[in-house]
């Protein structure tokens, strides 16, 4: 990575996503190089995701990485089920736009989300699904403490064939005490 490239990425600001970001986040999620890894559909209208993205979720963390006015990436930690007995769990979503990939933005977003989970929200377990062929994402998750828990055969349709996915999870490395 050259120094100028790195400096550009250093100027990215990570902040919470607001309802008015919804259209830009939706456009980010729908672009080639992103939608394939997220189970989004190609050519889905930006408007098709607006209702969901504008809704504020209590007990969730939603972050955007902003390069000026552009959404360079986003991350979310979402409640997986409304039961109190799974309140210690969040599901992770993470994406970075192709022109920003490989420049540390995904790692920064993930580190910020994990700080929220570990130090503020009392989350014990963060879980996710990732396509088994998504080497970059798997390398990042392993680096950040996630371990593979299982493999799901023919989990999803991707560009004309069924692909497996891995379930991965990270337990709080040092759960809070008194
Ligand atoms: C997966 C994704 C979020 C990673 O974000 P990123 O900003 O590209 O990743 P980073 O630059 O922060 O890289 C962090 C680590 O990932 C790994 N990595 C990065 N590029 C890689 C590559 N080309 N191949 C393998 N591993 C790679 C490395 O471990 C790297 O750490 P290092 O730079 O210290 O070696 C991003 O590529 C993406 O959004 N892809 C499309 C959507 C998607 O697949 N999301 C995940 C769904 S589960």
Task: Summarize it.
28% of the residues lie in helices and 33% in strands. It is of the alpha+beta class.
CATH-defined architecture: 3-Layer(aba) Sandwich
- The radius of gyration computed from the alpha-carbon positions, rounded to a whole number of angstroms, is 16 Å
The CATH topology turns out to be Aminopeptidase
Strand adjacency order, main sheet: 1-2-3-4-5-7-6
Q: What is the structural class?
A: alpha+beta
Can you put this structure into words, describing what you see?
- By secondary structure, the chain is α+β, with helices and mostly antiparallel strands.
- It has six helices and seven strands.
- It has a seven-stranded mixed sheet.
- α5 (105-119) links the parallel β4 (89-96) and β5.
- The longest helix is centred in the middle third of the chain and has 15 residues, at 105-119.
- The protein is globular.
- The termini are far apart.
- Coenzyme A binds at residues 34, 37-38, 94-96, 101-107, 128, 130, 134-137, 139-140, 143.
Set out the fold topology:
Blueprint: H1 3-10, E1 13-16, H2 22-30, H3 35-38, H4 50-54, E2 61-67, E3 70-79, E4 89-96, H5 105-119, E5 125-131, H6 135-143, E6 147-158, E7 161-171
The protein binds coenzyme A (COA).
The site of coenzyme A (COA) has 22 residues, from helix 3, strand 4, helix 5, strand 5 and helix 6.
Give me some keywords for this one.
alpha+beta; Aminopeptidase; 7-stranded mixed beta sheet; 6 helices; binds coenzyme A
């Amino acid at each position: 990575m050259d120094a100028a490239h790195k400096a550009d990425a250093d100027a990215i600001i990570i902040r919470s996503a607001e309802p008015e970001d919804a259209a830009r986040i939706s456009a980010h999620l729908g672009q080639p190089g992103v939608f394939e890894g997220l189970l989004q559909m190609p050519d889905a209208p930006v408007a098709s995701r607006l209702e969901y993205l504008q809704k504020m979720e209590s007990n969730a963390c939603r972050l955007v990485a902003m390069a000026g006015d552009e959404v360079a990436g986003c991350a979310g930690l979402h409640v997986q089920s409304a039961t109190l007995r799974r309140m210690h769990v969040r599901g992770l979503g993470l994406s970075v736009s192709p022109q920003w990939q490989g420049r540390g933005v995904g790692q920064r977003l993930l580190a910020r989300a994990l700080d929220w989970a570990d130090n503020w929200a009392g989350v014990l377990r963060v879980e996710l699904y990732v396509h088994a062929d998504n080497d970059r994402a798997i390398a990042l998750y392993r680096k950040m403490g996630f371990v593979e828990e299982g493999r799901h055969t023919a989990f999803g349709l991707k560009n004309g064939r069924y692909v497996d996915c891995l379930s991965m999870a990270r337990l709080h490395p040092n759960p809070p005490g008194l």
